[in-house]
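To illustrate the input format used throughout this study, we show a single complete record. The first block contains the structure-token representation of the backbone; no residue identities are included at this stage. The design step must infer an amino acid for every position from geometry alone.
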């Protein structure tokens, strides 16, 4: 116990020292959050992506996704072999050695974690306290700079109505403790005004969090029966406008997808938006996941000449369908990422976010340009 405390003390002293080393970092610039999906290590062939493939100079904040909630209500690694045994956490926060202004956060939650356990944890002050303890221990042990809370979603998917208030309480208590350690608190929220009002106590959130990351993508789920937009600008604008009624616009961060949603059409003559699909699109060679394609996988398809490409300016999305065949993809291009980054500036938001850096172009054979992230950088850091 004593040795543990001394370790904590030493780690925290070195944090203070590092914070001094980072005194020269810009304080008024936009934030660029980049998620790293830890399962990207399992992708095929040269598509496999580890923390060592991250360029530490690209983003202001990196988020490691995901950790989860244990049966006992504490934060836990969901892949301890890679996160801990093979030092994924350590390698990730170690990227700060190459960029002292970089902040590294750990995300908890995600779609697969669901809601039920979280709903129970926030419901009782003693559970919340035990959870907060476990968070501090894990963050300090691995030198993370904060926690990103990705509960999907309070009051939904097995949650209860009281989640809204209880999650607000948890965030308030969490921030009180994180502040003592100089650690950040962010949350990820869906592109939905309906879930906003059902799930989030925005007044409590504005007081407690450093940033609210709006997941401005996944508008059409993989199991949809019809084609639809991936990240429609009109829905994004409605969600942003609803958030900035109570939350400072400088805390709002707009997330963009470095991936596309694909479907197999029912009928090759019906290839627009809202037409019937037979199922998710065929998995990409590298990503190996039906209905999901990385940015380079999309680029190689749409630049092949085999697809008809359609742009929609209202949605600021593209879709493409194979001239002979049933393949259909909704995606973004450098043009729409630029549009969205300019929207971030025009609304005076806090910055942008990319889900996720491991599906950007990262390797020589995949152009190694980090095209999505760099396109956002060009606009956000123009001055
Ligand atoms: C962490 O870095 C070491 C040294 O480069 C590497 O051997 C290891 O595979 C990395 N771990 C993960 C999970 O990527
Ligand atoms: C890589 O870049 C070249 C030239 O800009 C382009 O023609 C090619 O399609 C790109 N490949 C991928 C996989 O993005």
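Output of the design step:
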């Amino acid at each position: 116990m004593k040795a543990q405390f001394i370790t904590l003390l030493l780690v925290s002293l070195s944090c203070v020292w590092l914070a001094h080393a980072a005194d020269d970092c810009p304080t008024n610039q936009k934030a660029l959050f980049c998620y790293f999906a830890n399962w990207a290590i399992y992708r095929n062939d040269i598509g496999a992506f580890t923390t060592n493939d991250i360029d530490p100079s690209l983003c202001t904040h990196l988020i490691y996704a995901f950790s989860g909630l244990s049966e006992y209500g504490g934060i836990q690694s969901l892949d301890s072999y890679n996160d801990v045994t093979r030092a994924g956490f350590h390698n990730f926060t170690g990227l700060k050695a190459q960029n002292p202004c970089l902040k590294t956060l750990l995300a908890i939650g995600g779609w697969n974690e669901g809601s039920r356990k979280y709903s129970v944890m926030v419901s009782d002050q003693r559970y919340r306290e035990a959870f907060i303890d476990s968070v501090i221990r894990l963050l300090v042990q691995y030198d993370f700079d904060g926690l990103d809370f990705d509960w999907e979603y309070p009051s939904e998917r097995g949650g209860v109505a009281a989640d809204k208030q209880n999650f607000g309480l948890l965030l308030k208590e969490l921030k009180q403790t994180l502040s003592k350690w100089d650690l950040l608190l962010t949350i990820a929220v869906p592109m939905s005004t309906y879930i906003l009002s059902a799930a989030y106590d925005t007044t409590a959130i504005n007081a407690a969090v450093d940033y609210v990351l709006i997941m401005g993508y996944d508008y059409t789920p993989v199991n949809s029966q019809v084609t639809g937009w991936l990240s429609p600008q009109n829905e994004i604008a409605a969600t942003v406008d609803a958030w900035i009624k109570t939350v400072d616009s400088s805390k709002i961060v707009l997330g963009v997808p470095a991936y596309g949603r694909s479907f197999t059409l029912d009928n090759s003559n019906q290839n627009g938006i809202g037409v019937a699909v037979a199922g998710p699109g065929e998995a990409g060679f590298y990503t190996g996941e039906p209905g999901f394609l990385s940015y380079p996988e999309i680029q190689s398809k749409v630049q092949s000449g085999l697809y008809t490409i359609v742009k929609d300016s209202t949605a600021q999305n593209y879709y493409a369908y194979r001239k002979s065949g049933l393949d259909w993809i909704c995606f973004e291009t450098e043009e729409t990422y630029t549009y969205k980054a300019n929207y971030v500036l025009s609304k005076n938001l806090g910055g942008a976010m990319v889900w996720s850096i491991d599906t950007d172009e990262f390797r020589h054979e995949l152009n190694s340009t980090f095209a999505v992230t760099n396109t956002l950088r060009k606009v956000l850091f123009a001055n």
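Structural context for interpreting the output: The chain has a mean pLDDT of 94. Residues 213 and 253 are 5 Å apart (CA to CA).
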